[in-house]
Design goal:
By secondary structure, the protein is an alpha/beta fold. Helices cover 42% and strands 9% of the residues. It has helices at 34-45, 77-82, 84-102, 146-152, 160-178, 181-184, 195-213, 231-243, 246-254, 267-280, 293-296, and strands at 15-18, 67-70, 110-114, 117-120, 123-126, 132-134, 139-142. The strands form two sheets. Strands 2-1-3-7-6 form a five-stranded mixed beta sheet, with helices on one face. Strands 4-5 form a two-stranded antiparallel sheet. The longest helix is centred in the first third of the chain and has 19 residues, at 84-102. The protein is globular and about 50 Å long.
């Protein structure tokens, strides 16, 4: 369990949206763990879809129908512990409280739990894409079934805290957007020293810093939202970070690695930067100031 059972999480504003199922790919500047799935599809099919990551601007497939509403039965920490859908929604409260203390003039992102598929300004969010942040509408899109993929295809346990890590990573991209980091360090291609890799590693570092401090955030009655993570949970979160390393995915799907095509960083890099944030805090998360992302991580 990651949430205190009595914590009040009913104030979350997360929407559940979707309808129909499409084999669509996100584009139009999308960033986040979902882009890893694009790489996996490319490796298995031999079709180059990497141009859709971080800057694809072509017409995107749209969901054929859509329904929208709030996440149901998501009122307490017990609900969050029992339901992935609620857990993903509830952690938004904790993240918003955390970042409001660290970013002046913080603006909360939108968050949508995707059911099947739904259209976004960055393309179609669907089961095939996974979690991503769309800068155009400042919204995080997460299909909770992604965690099954993380477990079945990438070898991660993908337990409670690993799921928190994934959400926190996407919120890290929102911070990069509203603080000007994305504008200062735009997409400049792929490879271990690219801005894209540095952007992803910084989001991992932000996630680690958040997890180290998440127990300090409290609901309106003063009850801490979340429990102190166990060593096993931290290990699981690190495993999740490693599982979506470019080298791990390429080795699993294609049998070889090609560093010059990396967009997210290696497994070792991702674990290192998550751990850096967890142990040392936000002040050590400037992945853009180091000589090379690979040598520092």
């Amino acid at each position: 369990m990651t949430f205190n059972p009595d914590a009040d999480v009913s104030d979350n504003k997360v929407q559940r949206r979707g309808g129909g199922r499409t084999a669509a790919i996100a584009g139009g500047g999308v960033v986040g763990l979902g882009a890893v799935v694009v790489l996996l599809i490319s490796a298995f099919t031999g079709v180059d879809l990497t141009g859709l990551i971080g800057g694809g601007t072509g017409a995107q497939p749209q969901a054929t129908s859509s329904s929208e509403g709030s996440v149901q039965s998501c009122n307490t920490g017990t609900d969050a512990n029992n339901s992935v859908d609620c857990r993903v929604a509830a952690v938004s409260l904790v993240l918003n409280d955390y970042w409001s203390k660290h970013v002046k003039g913080y603006v909360e992102p939108g968050q949508v739990n995707v059911d099947g598929s739904t259209s976004t300004p960055c393309g179609t969010a669907s089961n095939d894409v996974g979690p991503f942040y769309c800068p155009s509408d400042q919204t995080v899109y997460i299909d909770p079934t992604f965690f099954q993929l993380l477990h079945q295809q990438f070898g991660a346990e993908a337990g409670d805290l690993a799921q928190v890590y994934v959400v926190a990573h996407e919120y890290g991209h929102h911070i990069q957007n509203i603080t000007g980091t994305m504008e200062k360090y735009p997409n400049n291609g792929t490879g271990p020293t690219s801005n894209g890799v540095r952007t992803e590693l910084q989001a991992d570092c932000y996630a680690g810093a958040f997890i180290a401090s998440m127990t300090q955030e409290k609901d309106k009655k003063g009850v801490p939202y979340m429990k102190t993570p166990t060593e096993a949970q931290i290990s699981d979160a690190l495993d999740a970070a490693a599982a979506v390393g470019d080298d791990h995915i390429q080795q699993q799907s294609a049998g070889y690695t090609n560093p010059e095509s990396w967009t997210h960083g290696s497994s070792d890099q991702r674990k290192k930067w998550f751990a850096t944030g967890y142990k040392n805090g936000l002040g050590q998360c400037d992945t853009f100031s180091v000589g090379t992302a690979s040598s520092s991580a």
